[in-house]
Write a structure and sequence with these properties.
5-stranded parallel β-sheet; 10 strands; 20 helices; alpha/beta
């Protein structure tokens, strides 16, 4: 296992040791399934209990898509797309669609209600052979359901209903729901979202694995990384990296540091941070509690958010994810005129410069009153992504129980939907619509 957690620059700001004493109980609650939300703990044992038959079907479907499609359109929102996009950018490149040569381009839809985005995707599909992976447990979530209705029509128009059905892959409930009914009726190949795994914990299920495999990423390696971390996370020890992270962030929260900024010095990490924000925001933000999850891309955001981090309100702390060598051999060249004054960097690799920028920034932020948690992993690859995903998931479960909330529900997510349904005229919402229109 390559992942480690450095909490030295958090211990100077908060009583991490006191919170560490509460972790045995939180650990038992999570592992034994005795706490709130215990019907959504399937992800805890998931790396050890992957269905080999389902995994083989995922690989076969990915092979077919890679052979007959220029584009895979992934339709989903929240946990139904963030994990897959994070994995593809982390393991391959944030410029995946530009650098992928032997794999289909992967376009994500159904994560907004933007007409402009939908029209743009439609134009991008013109002249291409393409397939759809629609991901929804119910099949009725508004954003992906609308997108699927639109793009299914386009696919059937291009290929005919029978051929289109062979190009639609549904990742949905095992036995019920609108999408499962449609898949059974029209003959879509379907994959199962486990009943006991919530969306934000689902990246290592078929939800994430199918599009990840379509990108040519080794899903076996990814699951192996998750298994290694699961074994480590199971230890009841202050040296457990999940314990260290959960204890440090909760101690800082209790000391008044209510916003956590997740940062990395590699652009490929950006969507992993987006996935992390959903994971922690939905899991902890309830009952008037929770650390607010934010993210920055460094060093780019040092030239924007860096000022606030250095000298703004002192209610923030950072979790900085760092990697080993990138493996890219890029050296700063010597310049005869040296007009930019950078010849002192000549001969140094960009990895060295980036590493020193990270070290200097960490010390400056700590000196400025910003606690820092360091998470170090090996080079970005499928194995370390699986490791990182499980680390954050297990730590999240521990943190939720330390906060005394149910980490596995999201009751507040429905509030906007009720208002949207009422305002757009969904039957049964007439009274609510009248109330809202008065307020508008």
């Amino acid at each position: 296992m390559s992942l480690s957690v450095d909490i030295r620059n958090a211990e100077n700001f908060a009583k991490v040791g006191e919170v560490m004493e509460e972790l045995p109980a939180a650990h038992d609650t999570l592992v034994n399934g005795t706490g709130a939300g215990n019907d959504f703990l399937g992800w805890v044992r998931l790396p050890f209990e992957v269905d080999p038959g389902e995994l083989s079907r995922i690989k076969a479907a990915a092979k077919k898509i890679r052979s007959d499609s220029d584009v895979l359109l992934v339709i989903g929102i929240g946990g139904s797309y963030l994990g897959a996009r994070a994995a593809i950018e982390y393991c391959v490149s944030p410029n995946y669609n530009l650098v992928a040569k032997d794999s289909p381009k992967i376009i994500f839809a159904g994560n907004s209600l933007s007409a402009a985005q939908t029209a743009e995707i439609t134009a991008m599909l013109d002249g291409c052979d393409w397939s759809i992976n629609v991901i929804s447990k119910s099949g009725t979530t508004t954003e992906p359901a609308v997108a699927f209705r639109i793009f299914r029509g386009l696919l059937e128009e291009k290929y005919g209903a029978a051929e289109a059905a062979k190009r639609i892959y549904a990742t949905t409930d095992r036995a019920r729901g609108a999408l499962k009914t449609l898949a059974n009726t029209l003959g879509y190949e379907s994959f199962v979202i486990p009943d006991d795994v919530g969306g934000r914990f689902s990246v290592l299920t078929p939800v994430g694995l199918l599009p990840i495999a379509c990108a040519g990423i080794d899903v076996d390696e990814m699951l192996e990384g998750a298994r290694e971390m699961a074994e480590t996370a199971g230890a009841k020890s202050p040296e457990n990296p999940c314990w260290r992270y959960a204890a440090a962030r909760n101690a800082l929260y209790r000391a008044g540091y209510t916003t956590e900024i997740n940062a990395a010095y590699e652009p490929r990490y950006r969507y992993t941070a987006e996935w992390w924000k959903q994971l922690y925001g939905e899991s902890e933000g309830k009952d008037g509690k929770g650390i607010f999850p934010a993210s920055v891309d460094l060093t780019a955001d040092l030239h924007s958010m860096g000022q606030y981090i250095q000298q703004g309100m002192r209610n923030i702390f950072e979790t900085v994810v760092s990697f080993g060598s990138s493996g890219a051999d890029v050296t700063v060249p010597f310049s005869g005129d040296n007009l930019d004054g950078l010849n002192f960097l000549a001969g140094h690799t960009l990895d060295e410069v980036n590493s020193m920028a990270a070290a200097g920034t960490r010390l400056a932020h700590v000196d400025g009153g910003v606690p820092n948690i360091g998470v170090s992993v090996d080079r970005p690859c499928a194995r370390s992504f699986g490791e990182l995903v499980y680390f954050f998931e297990f730590s999240c479960g521990l943190s939720g129980y330390l906060l005394d909330v149910n980490p596995f529900n999201q009751p507040g997510v429905e509030a906007y939907k009720v208002n949207m349904y009422a305002l757009i005229g969904k039957p049964g919402y007439e009274e609510r619509r009248a109330e809202l229109e008065k307020r508008l």
